[in-house]
């Protein structure tokens, strides 16, 4: 049994219709009771903790996002396994259609428990080890699942068949363009040096002057403050604005003129933070577990250390985007939070500047940086889609609502 999709790829988004056929192929007869095709979405988390003595504890979190089922064939009937195919068609809803009870005893404020929340993107972060005795993983999966149930009244039957095809669900943003909103971070730097004296900017320092420079209280000092404007929001695969500003502190300085401050090195980093929630995999399913981990990567960098003659001076307002190509990689996932998985980001800029032939380091970070999807979806189109949502074909019986399912005793998604 196989699933064939009519579109050339498996990338989907809210409102997209995905269609295809389910086919039987082979050279033997098969007794068929029912053949179905389902569109399902799930959030899965798992943490394994090693306890020593070759024992371990496993925590799991399973949260459904949606499930739609179409019955393609009803038997019982005996049929050839070749030459039979059935068409299907599904439309992705804009929001979750949750089914099943909430397995967690306690809820952490990080996660979104709204049963009709927007569908999160396809996501995978697996086999992450931390603290030497923990291993965590999490997934957001969307799949087409075709199932064949054989004739249960016959002793000799080929049995049940099942095949799956994974879909890549991509979220969209509802803001087409927006004015950048910044958070400002600052760091004060004091440069003590004899080179700040007029006529000594580039000249050699004598041994006597080097001894004098040990006592900074006797040296000229230039005090300046670096300001970094960090964006609060970014868009995948789009340019990221970063503004560096320089402010001289005249009152705290003893120099007669402002020294030249040049940019030596700059690194822009993005830290991806993943949070998950699980529950002990036992009969009574007690003992919630929350875990988190982070991955850091560079998205842009520039270094003039090997050729300081090309190092640009830091001005009152310096657009770093003009010096280096700053973009968030398109393959990252936008910020999202669902029943048991959350993805957030931290934006950091590490730089070093030179003043009076001395190097100073500075770091600026925004701990709440929201990353939006690359594609834009019109809010009007989303409203129309929500009004027309219930066109998914034969659901073979209405699925229980999230609230009704929560009341079902012992139900686990």
Automatic annotation (TrEMBL):
Any one annotated GO CC term: cytoplasm
Pfam family, one: Arrestin_N
Protein family: Belongs to the arrestin family.
CDD domains registered for this protein in UniProt: ART10-like
InterPro entries: Arrestin-like_C, Arrestin-like_N, Arrestin_domain-protein, Ig_E-set
GO terms classed as biological process: protein transport
Subunit structure: Interacts with hulA.
Protein name per the record: Arrestin-like N-terminal domain-containing protein
Domain Arrestin-like N-terminal: 3-97
Residues of the signal peptide: none
